[in-house]
Design goal:
Length: 225
């Protein structure tokens, strides 16, 4: 399996974001992460910022859960928020022991400009956008990671960052992403043309932020003043 089945609106969003999507695959951070040459300092920078971004992702999932009236849908997004905070945290703590940072370090971390902007983007749309807009902003993060994971093939057990990469190639994570895309598609089915246009724009913006997230870790971004 090399791709996830996608409905018409997801396919439309993916097509609109094609250039930015491929730019993430080609980014030197991603290339170095996949081939194992990424240095520990850059990976540490990425890990710590990622832990903080996932707080915003969890907030957005929690807000989206309120938008659903069906109990199963509510529970799915509550579980998605929990997954972001609990399962991912375990990975961050594991690498923290290796790379030399603690939960307290993450708690007091200053967000980069790119990270703060991306987190605000997904949370604000979860608060103020329509359901399909909120999902359009949320979906690219797991979908792009899954896409990268599914393109990697077998991961060498001696790969420097093997545990991290396996997360995004794991069948359970692929299923999670596929289910999120189904929720996006259901919301799109009830949305008008203007909502769909805004949701597509939110999706493309998030894909661009994903590239910017790799880039800020590669360059160890800091505030200019």
């Amino acid at each position: 399996m090399t791709s996830i089945e996608q409905g018409p609106f997801a396919a439309r969003c993916r097509k609109a974001a094609a250039d930015a999507w491929q730019a993430s695959h080609a980014h030197p951070f991603v290339q170095a992460l996949v081939d194992g040459s990424l240095d520990a300092e850059r990976f540490r920078f990425y890990q710590m910022q990622d832990a903080r971004y996932l707080e915003a992702f969890a907030d957005a999932c929690s807000l989206i859960s309120v938008r659903h009236v069906e109990p199963d849908a509510k529970l799915w997004f509550i579980d998605a928020a929990r997954l972001s905070m609990v399962v991912e945290r375990q990975l961050h703590e594991e690498y923290g022991r290796t790379l030399g940072y603690t939960a307290d370090d993450i708690r007091h971390l200053e967000l980069t400009p790119n990270n703060r902007a991306y987190g605000n983007h997904v949370v604000v749309l979860a608060q103020t956008g329509s359901l399909v807009e909120a999902l359009g902003a949320l979906t690219p993060c797991p979908w792009l990671y899954t896409d990268i994971g599914m393109q990697m093939g077998m991961i060498d057990p001696d790969h420097r960052w093997a545990n991290w990469l396996r997360t995004y190639a794991d069948p359970g994570f692929v299923t999670y992403t596929a289910e999120l895309l189904q929720y996006l598609e259901r919301a799109a089915a009830y949305a008008g043309a203007d909502e769909l246009r805004r949701a597509e724009e939110a999706f493309v913006t998030s894909v661009r932020y994903e590239w910017m997230f790799w880039d800020q870790a590669w360059k160890k971004q800091d505030w200019p003043v």
